[in-house]
């Protein structure tokens, strides 16, 4: 495990270090006739922590889901770590390999154990031998403080524990960029804070860039930068809108 | 834990039991059978009917039954049975005909071969049902078993005399059609179901929709007729595909269409987040499908899947209309023997017993599999 991390880091430095982690250039998206992303342009630097604020339906989720192609955009450019997201499957593979995601509803795989959830990406995407992948997954489960649950199934865990597994699962894929779509939205405040502490501590360690959607004011305040969305546009925050970042 | 906690504070024995009269057999009887004068009357009436029917069945099927008849010059003398008609069952017909019914016109002295084939199939079902055999090797087990089945049925090698399909019949035919039917239609169904949900390949999707709707839109009998009458017309002259194979293909295509819809139901029921999470991890389409989607979707549809399998196990009997001698057809053939002609009830009860044994096993298995999977996943 400890050998794996530095080598991954050095590979990072060797690759395009100057490219921003995320570059959105006048991205537009429609659902049918509804214009949900309007000329969205955003640059997120390497290792930056950016929070996206805005009311429900303002396009926050759609924007970050476009970054790993859970949704496809129709106009404009999305470049992740120097790789442009196109219809080419190879660019999609490269980007998904580099981008991890944490969902509001956890989305753990209920038919797999906690450990199997966390070894999926290392084994199948990074082609790691099983033993090594398990060691890596266990190290992340230890860091999210639930190694003793490794053999259990997601249905046996509480919400906070499930979200911690989801974070471990996303990080076990060794992403350079982590997207989080309201990771604390389904958790009570105290549990949410604990989960976020872990997320930030882990991110700190691996130097992962973080793009986060949240309604939680405390959480938003801990990021390097806040961007605001309204009606599918990125807007300059007035004080009223800044307050929208909190419930 | 809770016991330890309550034991300290409460007189545990007194509190942990529900009030007297709400548990135990008497309470159950009162709650379920004698709750009101209406349900008491119904209980007594149904009880009377059940007892009467059971007694007359026992009388007919066991007490007055005739288990064997004398033979004169190799011909069964069924006069005993004729005299007992309506009073006692004549199981002698099954004793006399069971080999014909089970193995058809397969050469009599070679019938140990189809007998082993039947056992092989049953063994294959049992092994396939055990979760600890659910791995890649199972495919090899199936291939080996089916090859062995072929060798035993056809012969012609290892000193076994050659027996062509024209002489096959009875239970092996039913099991061959059902087993190969399931083995090929199930993967076909999965592919069709996936194809039908495809968003990126409209041509494939259209093809899958057409296949399902066309096949589902016609009766199985007409598909079998098509296969047996029409199919050879499309073949070049001289190419003669065996009748059994044609029926088998028809059954596979037909079952595939129905199973595809069942599988599609399971795919539809799965929350979208599962596919998204798999995508977000970077799994490829086939990894996502094989590791995340199908294991969950198929588990959701175990009851309708088994339902469909049971239906098709019984529907194999329709091959009689194209002249194949499956189990049911062999029962009819057995009844065409003059001395036994009037004992169809007994023969059909015997046939029903075989079908019930297989179908009931399938249905019990599906229940236990569901329970097992749920328990394993902590729910």
Describe the fold and architecture.
The complex is a heterodimer of chains A (247) and B (379). Chain A has nine helices and ten strands. With 247 residues, chain A is of the alpha/beta class. Chain A has a domain at 48-71 and 98-236: 3-Layer(aba) Sandwich (Rossmann fold). Chain B has 379 residues and is mainly alpha-helical. The chains are: A alpha/beta (247), B mainly alpha (379).
Summary of the model, kept short:
Chain A has helices at 4-14, 60-67, 89-98, 114-125, 130-143, 159-172, 189-206, 217-221, 239-243, and strands spanning 22-31, 34-44, 49-53, 75-80, 83-84, 99-102, 177-181, 209-213, 225-230, 233-235. With 247 residues, chain A is of the alpha/beta class. The model of chain A is unreliable at 1-16 (pLDDT under 50).
Radius of gyration of chain A using CA atoms only: 18 Å
How would you name the CATH homologous superfamily of chain B? Answer: MetI-like
Task: Just name the CATH architecture of one domain in chain A.
Answer: 3-Layer(aba) Sandwich
CATH homologous superfamily title of one domain in chain A: P-loop containing nucleotide triphosphate hydrolases
Structural class of chain B: mainly alpha
Calculate Rg of chain B over CA atoms: 27 Å
Helix content range of chain B: over 70%
Shape of chain B: globular
**Mean pLDDT of chain A, nearest integer?**
83
Spatial strand order of the main sheet of chain B: 1-2
Query: What is the level-2 CATH architecture name of chain B?
Result: Orthogonal Bundle
CATH class call of one domain in chain A:
Alpha Beta
Q: Determine and state the CATH class of chain B.
A: Mainly Alpha
Q: How many helices of chain A in DSSP terms?
A: 9
Distance between the termini of chain A: 40 Å
SSE topology sketch:
The complex is a heterodimer of chains A (247) and B (379).
Chain A: H1 4-14, E1 22-31, E2 34-44, E3 49-53, H2 60-67, E4 75-80, E5 83-84, H3 89-98, E6 99-102, H4 114-125, H5 130-143, H6 159-172, E7 177-181, H7 189-206, E8 209-213, H8 217-221, E9 225-230, E10 233-235, H9 239-243
Parallel strand pairs in A: 3-8, 3-9, 6-7, 7-8
Antiparallel strand pairs in A: 1-2, 1-4, 4-5, 9-10
Chain B: H1 2-9, H2 12-16, H3 24-32, H4 37-63, E1 71-72, E2 75-76, H5 79-84, H6 92-103, H7 112-129, H8 137-154, H9 171-197, H10 202-216, H11 220-234, H12 243-269, H13 272-281, H14 285-300, H15 302-315, H16 327-335, H17 344-376
Antiparallel strand pairs in B: 1-2
Helix pairs in contact in B: 6-16, 7-8, 7-9, 9-10, 9-12, 10-12, 11-12, 12-14, 12-15, 13-14, 15-17, 16-17
């Amino acid at each position: 495990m400890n050998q794996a991390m530095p080598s991954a880091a050095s590979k990072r430095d060797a690759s395009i270090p100057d490219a921003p982690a995320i570059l959105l250039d006048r991205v537009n998206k429609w659902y049918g006739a509804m214009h949900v992303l309007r000329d969205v342009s955003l640059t997120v630097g390497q290792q930056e922590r950016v929070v996206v604020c805005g009311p429900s339906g303002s396009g926050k989720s759609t924007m970050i889901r476009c970054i790993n192609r859970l949704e496809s955009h129709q106009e404009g450019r999305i470049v992740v770590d120097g790789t442009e997201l196109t219809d080419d499957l190879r660019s999609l593979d490269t980007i998904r390999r580099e981008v991890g995601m944490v969902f509001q509803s956890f989305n753990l795989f209920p038919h797999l154990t906690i450990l199997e959830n966390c070894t999926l990406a290392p084994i199948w995407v990074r082609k790691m031998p099983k033993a090594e992948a398990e060691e890596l997954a266990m190290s992340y489960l230890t860091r999210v403080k639930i190694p003793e649950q490794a053999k259990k199934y997601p249905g046996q865990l509480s919400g906070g524990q499930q979200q911690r597994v989801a974070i471990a699962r996303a990080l076990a894929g060794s992403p350079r960029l982590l997207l989080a779509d309201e990771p604390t939205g389904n958790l009570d405040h105290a549990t949410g804070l604990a989960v976020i502490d872990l997320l930030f501590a882990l991110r700190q360690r691996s130097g992962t860039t973080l793009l986060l959607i949240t309604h939680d004011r405390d959480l938003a305040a801990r990021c390097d930068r806040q961007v605001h969305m309204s009606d599918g546009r990125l807007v300059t925050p007035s004080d009223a809108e800044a307050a929208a970042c909190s419930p | 834990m809770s016991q330890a906690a309550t034991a300290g504070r409460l007189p545990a024995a007194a509190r942990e039991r529900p009030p007297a009269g709400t548990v135990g057999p008497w309470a159950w009887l009162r709650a379920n059978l004698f709750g009101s004068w209406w349900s008491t009357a119904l209980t007594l009436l149904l009880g009377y009917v059940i007892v009467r029917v059971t007694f007359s069945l026992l009388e007919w099927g066991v007490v007055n039954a005739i288990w064997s008849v004398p033979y004169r010059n190799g011909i069964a003398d069924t006069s005993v049975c004729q005299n007992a008609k309506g009073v006692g069952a004549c199981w002698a017909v099954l004793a006399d005909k069971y080999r014909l019914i089970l193995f058809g016109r397969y050469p009599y002295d070679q019938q140990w071969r189809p007998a082993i084939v039947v056992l092989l199939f049953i063994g294959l079902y049992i092994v396939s049902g055990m979760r600890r055999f659910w791995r890649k090797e199972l495919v090899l087990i199936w291939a080996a078993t089916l090859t062995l089945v072929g060798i035993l049925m056809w012969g012609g090698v290892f000193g076994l005399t050659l027996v062509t399909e024209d002489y096959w019949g009875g239970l092996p035919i039913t099991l061959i059609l059902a087993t190969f039917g399931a083995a090929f239609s199930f993967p076909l169904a999965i592919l069709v179901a996936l194809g039908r949900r495809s968003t990126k390949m409209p041509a494939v999707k259209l093809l899958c929709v057409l296949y399902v709707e066309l096949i589902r839109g016609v009766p199985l009998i007409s598909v079998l007729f098509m296969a047996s009458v029409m199919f050879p017309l499309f073949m070049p002259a001289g190419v003669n595909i065996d009748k059994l194979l044609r029926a088998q293909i028809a059954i596979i295509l037909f079952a595939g269409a129905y199973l595809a819809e069942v599988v599609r139901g399971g795919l539809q029921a799965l929350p979208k987040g599962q596919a998204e999470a798999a995508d977000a991890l970077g799994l490829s389409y086939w990894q996502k499908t094989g590791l995340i989607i199908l294991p969950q979707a198929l588990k959701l549809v175990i009851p309708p899947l088994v339902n469909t399998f049971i239906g098709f196990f019984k529907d194999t009997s329709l091959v009689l209309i194209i002249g194949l001698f499956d189990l049911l057809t062999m029962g009819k053939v057995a009844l065409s023997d003059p001395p036994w002609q009037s004992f169809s009830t007994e023969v059909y009860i015997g046939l029903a017993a075989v079908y019930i044994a297989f179908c009931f096993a399938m249905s019990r298995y599906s229940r236990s599999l569901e329970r097992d999977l749920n328990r394993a996943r902590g729910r």
